[in-house]
Amino acid sequence: MERLLFGDNQFFGINHMSEEKARAQALRFQALEAVIEALDAAYDEGVRTFMCTTHARIASVCDHVRANPERYPELTFYPGMPYAHKYANAVTESGLLGALRRFLPDEGLLDAAMRSGTSIAKKDIEGVTTLLIDAEMRMFHGLRTPVIFLQNVVVDLLLGLGLTDAFRIFAEHVAASYGAEPGFITMNMPALLDALEELQIPNPIVCSNINKLGFRMSGGIARYERALREREFRAVAMSVFASGAIPAEEAIEWVCTQPNIESIVFGASSRANIRSTRDLVARHWTPASQASSTAPPRNGGSDRPASNRTTHSVAAVSGG
Amino acid sequence: MIRVGVVGLGKMGLSHHAILGAHPGVSVAGVCDSSSYLLDVLSKYTGVQTYDRFEAMLSEAELDAVVIATPSRSHAAMVHSALCAGLHVFCEKPFTLSPRDARSLAEFARERCLVTQVGYHNRFVGAFAEVKRLLDAGAIGRVTHALGEAYGPVVLKPAGRTWRSRRTEGGGCLYDYAAHVIDLLSWYLGEPQRAGGTVLRPVFSREIDDEVSGTLYFSEGHTAQISVNWSDESQRKMSTRITIWGTTGRIYVDRQECQVYLRDTAALPTGYGCGWNVRYTTALTSPVGFYLRGEEYSAQIDSFVHRIETRQPDGLNGFHSAAVTDNVIAMMLADAKDGHAAPREHASSPGARAGRQRWLRSWRAAKVPGAA
Q: What are the chain A neighbours of B153 within 8 Å (beta carbons)?
């Protein structure tokens, strides 16, 4: 994974601090051209992984990228599925099974019908889960998706219910059908690591809030810090600025001294902000900052130059 | 370890089940729903004990408490059965569809010293709680007027096949969305005396209201305007906001932020100055042990569990406060129907008490209906 991942919250009017800011962003990114412009700016500034939801508007971004392969030779997508509000609204309107039926393929795929029919009859979640994953992944056809994330609302719901077999099904299906590594977005990182360890999913990619304020780091910042020091996983940090509550430099400086963070997801609306985040990370993500942290030995530890590490990105996707 | 059962595994029930499942002080001892498919999946993959009849769960699961998240119409009877079984009860909102039921159940629970709570989760949102703190401190002086709004994209076309599209089941924008606004206004400003100018209008629905507007009148002369619409596609999800005007300032609040303007005549709370003050959710929100969809959902369950552990029947969002909200909803329904406000029955009046006793006696004798 790249050190910096470009998130998409800003495109959908998601801001955890202010509805006014969220609406201003929704207005700004109403036209697809504005989204493409921001994505182009990130790409040109060297941020070439787009961590995005499976919102219907992302399908248009995918179409654009497919139509212009020469413009984006290195662009990589990290899809995060599902776009939860789509399902939540459908459940309110049609009930749980009604919503499931609505999102399953309806294009006369005999195989799909068999798979869903059999699995519903057998109360087997494997068939339904893999069908839903395939439905969400259709928009990324022909694009590079080396990591596929399960969104936090679903991850944390399954985690709380104890329906963790679904994580294994997800991991196996994205590996087998898409050659991708599974990623898990969560607001409960330490608890999720326990569940993934029990399922024997080794060294998982886990994206969670990691910020100096401890904002939405459930169970407390101390447990997160200990997990980063001691647990074997590939951490992706999101909400590093806590929706703007922490000044940018202070936020980046702090997160760069945390051990075992492979990537940071961040969202930005302008080229200037993208560049400034990139430069801040370049300045603070140094061998020295990493040497001062105590990464687990399996990751190369502090004696390995940061430039050789394949981990560390700052992601600005976030849940809730 | 507190043994909790969950009845009704829709969106809220599943969410409560997950939060309870992650709670270190709770064991989910049973779940109950009418969907055998869902029960079979949960049983097969999580091993939780499942029931398709509420009575069976009550008698067999050895519960300490129950979370009721069924369609609203069934709340009253289920709450009554649970209280009769000596269980602490967390019930989804709206509490009941009849203020008389609500008050009687609140009294019944109080007599039995049981912990009760209704899922008005906004009272556990940091920003909304900050406003309560400011008002209690008299920060904006005497309140003169308020505006309570909620908008969201629930019913965007003429369809809808669930209980939420039926008035008799407790569906509609008034019960579902406006209830939150009414509950916050009652928390902030006290119990409204009457409702006026209420308009409940469908936008796309056949049977139910998609838009709610009206005025609430309070005993000290102040008023609150309500404007609620769940057919508003411009909102990504439900957005609730309250504005309050007082003699020494003005407060605007939504779940993300609290904007406060204080005049130089205001009694300034600690940390606040004259002019504009803004407090963001990032600073106002207390962390929770497990997060799903918002801190408030976990915080309200934490509070319920804590009150059971420490035997505190009284607390935030108990049945008595939810009964106030139910009563306001009934006043608005009557006002919309008649074009004027219905007289309010005071909870403490002798007539109300006698009626309550009669009703409880008849209910105790009644057969309890099955799970929704």
A: 89
Tokens in use for A27?
């207005």
User: Which chain A positions have a beta carbon within 8 Å of B280's beta carbon?
Assistant: 17-18, 243, 245
Average pLDDT over residues B36-48: 92
Q: Are B324 and B186 in contact (CB under 8 A)?
A: yes
Whether A221 maps to a domain, the answer reads yes
Q: Is the pLDDT of residue B346 over 90?
A: no
- Domain assignment of residue A123, yes or no: yes
ipTM above 0.90, yes or no: no
| CA–CA gap between residue B5 and residue B67 (Å, rounded) | 6
Pairing of strands B249-254, B239-246: antiparallel
Nearest by CB to residue A243, choosing from B46, B154, B282, is B282
| CB pairs < 8 Å spanning A and B | 131
The whole-model pTM stands at 0.87
Kindly list the structural domains of chain B, giving each domain's residue range(s) and its CATH number in brackets, ordered by start.
Answer: 2-122+292-318+342-365 (3.40.50.720), 123-284 (3.30.360.10)
Tell me the C-alpha distance between B359 and B213, whole Å.
Answer: 32
The rounded distance, in Å, linking the Cα atoms of A320 and B121 is 15
Interface of A with B in 138-177 (CB under 8 A): 153, 156-163, 165-166
Asked if residues A9 and A41 have their Cβ atoms less than 8 Å apart, the reply is: no
The pairing of strands B257-262 and B249-254 is antiparallel
Separation of CA B129 from chain center: 15
pLDDT at position B105 is 98
Q: For residue A196, tell me if it sits in a domain.
A: yes
Query: Measured between CB atoms, does B257 come within 8 Å of chain A?
Result: yes
Q: What is the dihedral of CA A8, A13, A15, A20, to 10 degrees?
A: 150
Which distant-in-sequence residues (6+ apart) come within 8 Å of A183 by Cβ?
A78, A80, A147, A148, A149, A150, A204, A205, A206, A207, A236
Helices (H), chain B: 11-21, 36-46, 54-60, 75-84, 99-111, 126-136, 173, 179-189, 281-284, 295-309, 319-338, 350-365
Which residue has 């001691």 as its token pair?
A230
Is B159 within 8 Å of chain A by CB?
yes
CB interface of A with B, residues 86-125, below 8 Å:
88-89, 91-98, 120, 123, 125
Asked if the model's pLDDT at residue A227 lies above 80, the reply is yes
Q: Is the peptide bond before B192 cis (omega within 30 degrees of 0)?
A: no
Cβ proximity of B156 and B243 under 8 Å: no
Tokens describing residue B289: 């042990």
pLDDT at A119 over 80: no
Side-by-side strand order, sheet with B116-118:
B50-51, B26-32, B2-7, B65-68, B88-91, B116-118
φ, ψ at B316 (rounded to 5°): -60, 135
Structural domain tally of chain A?
Answer: 1
B310 conformational bin, left if phi > 0, alpha if psi -120 to 50, beta if neither: alpha
The pLDDT value recorded for residue B158 is 84
Q: Determine whether the interchain pair B287/A220 forms a contact, defined as Cβ–Cβ distance below 8 Å.
A: yes
Asked whether the beta carbons of B124 and B151 are under 8 A apart, the reply is: no
- C-alpha count within 13 angstroms, C-beta hemisphere, residue A299: 28
Calpha distance B303→B306 (Å, rounded): 5
Spell out the residues 6+ positions from residue A101 whose beta carbon is closer than 8 angstroms to its own.
Answer: A94
Domain that holds residue A245: 4-315
Confirm whether A206 is domain-assigned: yes
* Cβ–Cβ below 8 Å for B41 and A153: no
With 50 as the cut, is the pLDDT of residue A308 above it?
Answer: no
| Tokens of residue A28, six digits | 């700004």
User: What pLDDT does residue A90 have?
Assistant: 66
